[in-house]
Amino acid sequence: MAAVPLPTTHRLGELSWTQVRQLAEQDPVVLLPIGAIEQHGPHLPVHEDSIVAEWVADRLAREYGYWVAPALNYGHSGTFRGYPGNLSLSQTTLRNVTYEIIEALVASGFRRIVIVDNNGGNVGPVTGASLDARRDLGLLVGHLYPWQLGYALMRDAYEDPATAYGHGAEPEHSAMLAMFPEQVQSDLARPGGLHSADGWIPTSYLEAAVPGYDVPGTVFWDFSEVSPTGCTGDVSLGSAETGKLWIERVLGFCAAYLAEYDRNTRTAEPAEAK
User: Fold this and answer.
1) Rounded Cα–Cα distance for residues 143 and 254 (Å)
2) pTM of the full structure
3) In a domain, 220, yes or no
4) Residue 89 is part of which domain span?
């Protein structure tokens, strides 16, 4: 079958099977967005992690010549199961599904895959799947976590990041105002804050203060037990202007990372499967 020009798209899902075969022969970098469906406070949509993962992957692919596989919109959000709208996979299921998607991409001829994973609960299962792919398939899978990158890259944008940062607060509130303003209901935002009826002094999702120590201890409660709004941090600081800075910095890092991944995997021989 003669080769035909690929359509003007960066989305793998828009190609026919013959076009996918033709694309794989070019050894492209494929981005796999993985998100989650979980609460982000009263003012942000439950599919936030998923739409941001796909938005970032789409933008990177369009601007730098990569390809985007259809997104996996469900992830692992066990700590938020107490809030309505939480549609969470188990860690085992997410690990297996991620591995099988990677395996299927390899079966289609792709060897260079970067996961754009936008949920903290996904990191363990996705890491396990990627390490298994390295062992079994000789694949070197890349990983980008936009929300985590934002926390690292945006500290100088706030007078006090320690009080500004949080789930449903900064910098994700601002980032959403820049990317998806029509899906943000800032007028419904309520102050965050953590409180336990059982005597603990919660300091984060799964941590509590231990008297006499600066180091917190881990407690495996559901976040709904210590956070009535689902938020931590200062929800009043959200702005589209700060969100534009988030886009600039996070996408800038992602572009540099992908260039490095592309350079180091383009001519490398696959590691021998053991």
Assistant:
1) 10
2) 0.93
3) no
4) 13-161+240-265
